[in-house]
Amino acid sequence: MTQTLEDFYQEKFNWVPDTLRKDIGHFNVFRIEDVISKKVSLLPFSRRDYFKVSLIIGRRKIHYADQSIEIKKQALLFSSPQIPYSMEMLDDQQTGYISIFTSAFFHHFGNPQGYKVFQPDGNHIFELSDEECMKACAIYEKMQDELVAEYLEKYDALRVLVFELLLSAMKMHPAPKIKKTEPNAAQRIALLFLELLERQFPIDNPNQRVALHTPADFAGQMSVHVNHLNKALRETTEKTTSGIIAERILQEAKILLKGTHWNVSEIAYTLGFNEATHFNNFFKKHLQISPTQFRID
């Protein structure tokens, strides 16, 4: 299920800010001990409809659909609406900070969601040294100071501080250096295809259904011949169109099987399969186990 900002405030504080509107950018920062009870050892698997950057101090285990990552001492954790997870506390010493914000908060001010840390196939957790942790704490404390300040430009300062955390993470795991070039026609086609594919997710309710699920569907939407689309993707990604679609459908299937109580037929429907048996065959072909077996493992 998806946790909204309204759900977050209602659950943690039993109230919702009057200024909270989906068409208005929102930002806030909290100490972890103020929003997570020491009596809670496991936060349930869910999506959030907002972005979150957390400084976690204390041992935890973060569970994604098909992997778990243990934080042994302290780390930065990046979360977006596309990255559902659950969290297990491994000791009682849980401190740190959480900053939450919507994409609208950065309207006309950069594009944080474009960073790999906020994308499903990126790195989301960055272990910190003691020195790096102290620097991150200082950034969050500055955020808290800015929030209560009374000058108009304080929100720009908060945006800069978020980017400071993002860039700090990029330095820990630098991306390979590439030569910047203007995208050619094949690259433009590939980028549009991937954008259309990703726009169909996340799936938040069993009545929602992906509309594009074959190469021909995407080619028609993009007004290109399917052979042209196939050639462009093979040239730029070295993968087939069908293969890329299948990978993304499989990723969402894992998320829905682990993160919802929907039955297999409902999940099959949302992912574009007309019959549950077709979904079962697709899942077993790629993972060698059935959806039901994956869910209970």
What this model shows, in words?
It is a single chain. By secondary structure, the chain is α+β, with helices and mostly antiparallel strands. The protein folds into two domains: 2-172, Jelly Rolls (Sandwich); 185-296, Homeodomain-like (Arc Repressor Mutant, subunit A). Helices cover 44% and strands 17% of the residues. The chain has eleven helices and ten strands. The protein has helices spanning 5-13, 32-35, 130-148, 154-172, 185-199, 215-222, 226-237, 241-259, 264-270, 276-287, 291-296; strands at 2-3, 27-31, 42-48, 51-57, 60-63, 68-71, 74-79, 85-89, 95-101, 125-127. Strands 1-3-8-5-6 form a five-stranded mixed beta sheet. Strand 5 (60-63) and strand 6 (68-71) form a beta hairpin. The two termini are 20 Å apart.
- Per CATH, the class of the largest domain reads Mainly Beta
Q: What's the name of the CATH homologous superfamily of the largest domain?
A: Regulatory protein AraC
Number of strands: 10
Kindly report how far apart the N and C termini lie: 20 Å
In spatial order, strands of the major sheet run 1-3-8-5-6
Secondary-structure-based class equals alpha+beta
Average pLDDT number: 88
> What is the CATH fold-level name of the largest domain?
Jelly Rolls
Largest sheet: 5 strands, mixed
Indicate the CATH architecture of the largest domain: Sandwich
Instruction: Identify the overall geometry.
Output: globular
Taken as a percent bin, the fraction of beta residues is 15-25%
The amount of helix comes to: 40-55%
- Provide a count of the helices: 11
Total domain units = 2
* Unreliable parts: 177-181
> Which sequence of SSEs, written as H and E, runs from N to C?
EHEHEEEEEEEEHHHHHHHHH
Backbone CA Rg:
21 Å
